[in-house]
Amino acid sequence: MAATAALPVLGPGLTEEPLPKSGSHLMEDDPTPPRYKSEPADVSRLAEPLTFPYSGCIASNRFMHAAMTEQLCTYDPDDHEKNGIPTENLERVYKKWGEGGCGLILTGSIMLYGDHLESIGDPVVSPHHPYHGPRFEGFKAVAQAGKANGSLMLAQVNHPGRLCVFQESPVSSSDVPVIKNGTGDGIYQYKPPHPASIEDIHRIIGAFAHVAEYLDKAGWDGIELHGAHGFLIAQFLSPRINKRTDEWGGSLENRMRFVLEIGKEVRRRTRPDFILGVKINSTEFQDTGFVTQEAREICKHLEANSFDFVEISGGSYEKILMTHQRESTKRREAFFLEFADQIVPGLTKTKVYVTGGLRTVGGMVRALDTVDGVGLGRPLCEEWSLCKEMLEGTVDGAIITRIDPGDFWLALMAGNRNIRMVGLGQPPLPCWKEEIIEGLKAQYKEWASNKSTVKELGRYRTIDKAYADAKRV
Ligand SMILES: Cc1cc2nc3c(=O)[nH]c(=O)nc-3n(C[C@H](O)[C@H](O)[C@H](O)COP(=O)(O)O)c2cc1C
């Protein structure tokens, strides 16, 4: 790709000389958005297909649309059985992202139980849900929408464990409470958890596998287990949270049993060409001081258990790490590449994606020296066809928003808003404009304090048509 020489190389901040306007989604009267400046790089490397070793499926390029919670499913505060049915807004969101050129699209987290949500409006597939009816039709429609232009469509599947505000005593690996109640001005207040019984563990493993089988039948290409960001799978992996003394805790072998058993059960219940991946944290390992050994060991076992890919991320609600922690990571753009350096040499088949911090074609192409693919989150909430445009060479850097790169919660709020707007058929907010961000900041405290309450339901949820008559405000 040709370098746009006129622009200075900038870190987080605003360019003085914006690139020519591009991006078909932008409204005509919008000024040109400022962009991160890329070093010269061979974009054709990002266009190379990627074959997954166990399913045999092929992603058309190296871009992954990272999981981003949409909160666009039905929610009923009085009847959790009605929760989590996809709406037409959700279908619209994936139709739009499906036009954006990512080889692989991950949805936001799908939950296993209607009363164990992470947020209001999460999608839900439970073990008793049948392979027909409005819910099943809704999931079919969302898959079709995302796949219409050749992307692989995968669902992220998650159990929040102790990170669930809807439970008086949420389940976890053991009874270690969340130490910091939601950064971001106390967005979430979590109750102390209880340790899962052996029966709970087997029931939850079965529930994960049911989602996979259900989505397989509904036309999805695969799933990603959410083993990062401090949710239930991570609560088993983490020696700080998992204090069990039975075969599900203690040694690394025991702590990783939960994720590996889920993987085995998913493989047993799905077609051979169903993609199975997992998102894991680098930080779980950093906390223990056994970064290299534990991470490598886990990934070797994931490979031996036919996981097609591992997505590397970091941070949790106790410690948000969606920003650069060291000068060395800033130079490499991606937050977690140093961790990838440690685990990739131990793998011979399983593919590795790194997500977090990537903003320029140059940074992404360099990441491919270490990993197989790159995940993008926040930039795709801003610019829905960014990957396509990068592949076509129209742009070589993401839009620089006015959101401080260290402020993940404001970015989450902005992302949620944009997903909601696209769900309604409107363009996303131009977050490179100061007045837009000032507006969001003014509403932030209210948004944060209403999060996952009935107030949020009334105040912020706007969905136009559900697949079922579930009650909603
Ligand atoms: C609006 C929004 C929602 C998110 N929801 C999820 C989620 O459901 N599951 C998940 O694993 N990560 C979620 N993330 C984190 C992203 O997948 C990604 O790891 C993170 O944003 C770092 O990548 P980036 O620097 O490219 O944004 C979310 C991020 C945003 C901005």
TrEMBL record:
CDD domains this protein is in? OYE_like_2_FMN
The residue range of the signal peptide is none
User: To which protein family does this belong?
Assistant: Belongs to the NADH:flavin oxidoreductase/NADH oxidase family.
Keywords of the record: Flavoprotein, FMN, Oxidoreductase
Residues annotated as domain NADH:flavin oxidoreductase/NADH oxidase N-terminal:
60-364
Q: What is this protein called?
A: NADH:flavin oxidoreductase/NADH oxidase N-terminal domain-containing protein
Q: Tell me the GO molecular function terms.
A: FMN binding; oxidoreductase activity
- Among its keywords, does the record have Nuclease? no
- What's the domain of life for this entry? Eukaryota
Region Disordered: list its residue ranges. Answer: 1-40
